[in-house]
Predict the structure.
Amino acid sequence: MRENVVIRTVSRIAVPFIQVFALYVIVHGALGAGGGFQGGVVFAASFILMTVAFGLTSVRKRLSNKWIVVYSVLGITIYAGIGLLCLLMGGNYLEYGVIETILGIPHLHGYLLDAVEIGIGITVMAVMTSIICDMADKGGESS
Amino acid sequence: MRVKALLAVLFIGIILFWTVEDMPAFGDPQAPATQYTGKLYVESVLPDIGIDNIVTAILASYRGFDTLGEVVVIFTAGISVTLLLRRGGRL
């Protein structure tokens, strides 16, 4: 597998495009088809392709075990933190309209939805990559 | 045994094809699915939230608490796999 030139070259070309497309899908969630779940899975697919082509060690170099856990907690924290922000502004939990009314910024509701989608995307990306890396790892090979 | 299985498949298939003709046509505005809550969402998403995608508006805003639960479910699955498979290493 390591010596296969075709797989390595195609993956090296394809991975950046897959990641840019994943970011596009996440950010485009409020305007058209897309969202955090789909974009996160596409982003994790790029890491899975890197695992297939370059081996687990190169993925671990870019996204270590510690940072995978940090990212998966960070996504939920963004989501729940925006909900708590609505609570602090005097609304109900996850009632984004309150923030838009108090701060007076137009279209803030949509931007908060984008932030929530980004949080979902980070969590889904980290969890999918974590599952694949843990299953491909042969007992502490590169952890 | 195979004849019985074939009979069962034919029986269920005939029933399913029989019910197809009672379903509303694709995109029928008089269908029950587009009459009540669907109409409400289509009319009120733009003034309420101000984004174009009705699906995202329902997913993240109207049903935001539900989606938070879904993300927590995915997070719990990931943590479970980590705890089960990643033995001996640091978290």
Remarks:
- The mean pLDDT of chain A is 87.
- Chain A touches chain B at residues 29-35, 65-66, 69, 72-73, 75-76, 79-80, 83, 93-94, 96-97, 106-107, 109-110, 113, 116-117, 119-120, 123-124, 126-128, 130-131, 134-135, 137, 139-140, 143 (CB under 8 Å).
- The helical segments of chain A are 5-27, 36-54, 56-62, 65-88, 97-103, 108-136.
- Chain A has one domain: 5-136.
